[in-house]
Give the backbone structure.
Amino acid sequence: MQENLYYLLRERSLKSPVDLGLEIVGGKTVSYADLDNGSARIAKLFQELCLVPGDRVLVQVDKSPQAVMLYLGCLRAGMVYVPLNTAYTATELAYFLSDSEPRLVVCGPQAADKIELEAARIGAPHVLTMDERGAGTLMEQAGTLPPKNDILSLKSGDLGAILYTSGTTGRSKGAMLSHGNLSSNALALHRIWGWIPGDVLIHALPIFHVHGLFVALHTAMLNASRILFLPRFDADKIINLLPRATVMMGVPTFYTRLLHNPALTHDACRNMRLFISGSAPLLKETFESFETRTGHRILERYGMTEAGMITSNPLDGERLPETVGFPLPDVKARVADEHGVALGTDEVGVLEIKGPNVFQGYWRAPDKTQAEFRDDGYFITGDLVRMDQEGRISVVGRAKDLIISGGYNVYPKEVEVCIDNLEGVAESAVIGIPHPDFGEGAVGFVVLHRDANVSERSIKDALADSLARFKIPKKFFFVDELPRNTMGKVQKNLLRERYSDIFRNTGP
Ligand code: MLC
Ligand code: AMP
């Protein structure tokens, strides 16, 4: 049986004769047929470059329809797509290159020289470019080739993508997602969110993470929907598009920023059917203000890189703030203590899940994979939740030390290691503090050596060489010592309490 996700997408939309697809705002439409054709030319290019199924294609490019073609080309030809946040620095990229060992790297033209050197170092034979308009050597070369129209026959367990997710110990781990993981999740979401013919999606998310790449694109493509494709979030542009759209997906920051715009009104949302939020907790206050202003109750869902979407508030039933709804129909969920023993109704524990959406393990890290699965196959999410009598889940915290800022994950350990390596620094702690725009903002506490010549500015500048800017703490405090418990562990909860309102007056 043909279980390549591309086959499913092609049946639903890519072979559609209708002139729908990605509408670039203010520009032309790249139809589903164009996407199909572009992906087939890219598949031909892979063949010319002697890539074989299972080879990794590492991609760090801006959002464009051609970037979507590249993703689709990987699916259809059986390559493993490895997307990276465009904010990652050369230092971060060097790690992903050596860990994923791609045969082809596609990057922005400005980064190509540096990346070629790194690629040569690890023996990656090909580096091609793609700019923010989708132009560059990849499309130049693919454009001269005839389309390779076949779709590689795959099994559901074959890998479609590796998405990196940082580990609590600092180093990122590659979550291996199979075609079956991706298609089962897409089909479930398409069904439970009640997609209907004529739905039009506003797509303003980045396409290097689960939310924008899989959840938004796959569900809209399964529906052969028009996708209003914005290069990035822009509140004015989104509000202008609302009267033509029916569905929007975003991280909570999208909704707080929209609420700051007086043009967001009931009338502007008259055509909308569904606003969906996820990737970070949506505050009750945002949920309620949005309903008052627009008449829409945002549908909050919950997921993660390793499993795609896990729970969702109901489309038709009650959508409650501060809950993430029910497990998807094909997902089994339980709340357990640290030993994996199931807890009762309303008790707080770690969410453990099992289902066709759960990933195949961490790339070349069997120990890490084993550590996150129970013997009976349940995956330990690391999120602290409570489940009520009806089975409705609320995320109440995280067992993992993680900050989620504007929907991006920041692992304190990774940032602390970089700060600790700076001259003059004795030690540091990084925590997340409530932030009105980003939900949480990272804050650094630094203990300096005596006579160190270090300032907030010098730390931020030094970190910018090694860390993506969104990971760099927004504020630093220099302290004499870090609060510790009797075991010597830094008491981050005390810091969180003491500094809880430092971002209170920070606007979007
Ligand atoms: C940008 N900056 C951020 C940031 N985004 N800092 C912290 N957190 C963020 N998320 C930095 C910039 O580098 C810049 O720093 C400064 O903040 C101002 O940038 P901006 O122009 O205001 O930011 P903007 O470009 O508007 O981006 C904000 C955003 C964006 C919220 C629109 O971050 C975004 O699109 N987030 C979505 C993330 C996402 O898709 N997550 C899904 C993960 S999947 P400086 O120093 O340069 O001034 C997942 C699973 C699931 O989690 O369940 O979905
Ligand atoms: P990522 O590793 O980037 O996929 O991030 C996944 C994490 O985001 C989850 O483990 C949760 O901690 C968090 N998350 C996603 N959606 C929600 C939500 N609706 N509410 C609270 N946390 C969420």
About this structure: The CA atoms of residues 391 and 471 lie 35 Å apart.
